[in-house]
Amino acid sequence: MMYIFDILTALFAMATGFATSWIGLELARLCGWREPVSANGPASPVRIGAEMTLTAVVGPWLLLINGFHNWRSGVVSLPLYTVLALVAVGWSMCSGVVVLQAAFASGYFLA
To answer: What CA–CA distance (Å, rounded) separates 43 from 38?
Structure first.
């Protein structure tokens, strides 16, 4: 049996994940990040790690926004966009749980 608090907790985690991905995207754009371009040589492990971390944080927001633009232009069908939105919601829930656990583990909310 599910209680209303379980549903509200899931919605809060999802909203936290989407907010984190939006803030991460805006901070990355503010720092000058653009779409990756292929370099002449292999990328350094630090750059690859940074780009993977950024993609893991920003992914849900990019899925929703790019999917919406592609659906409006007719490139993506509505059922496929629905699947993209569901994947983005699940991904943001996972990200939100990680962010909330980090916030609670920091001790900030215990005071």
So the answer is: 9
Question: Could you read off the pLDDT of 63-88 as tens digits, one per residue?
Answer: 888 899 999 999 999 999 999 999 99
Closest CA to 76 of 63, 61, 57, 59: 63
At 19-42, the pLDDT tens digits run 888 888 888 888 877 666 666 667
DSSP, collapsed to helix, strand or coil, labels residue 33 as coil
Which residues lie closer than 8 Å to 45 by C-beta, 6 or more apart? none
Phi, psi at 38, each rounded to 5°: -70, 130
Neighbours of 70 (CB within 10 A): 15
**pTM of structure:** 0.74
Count of all residues that appear for the chain in the document: 111
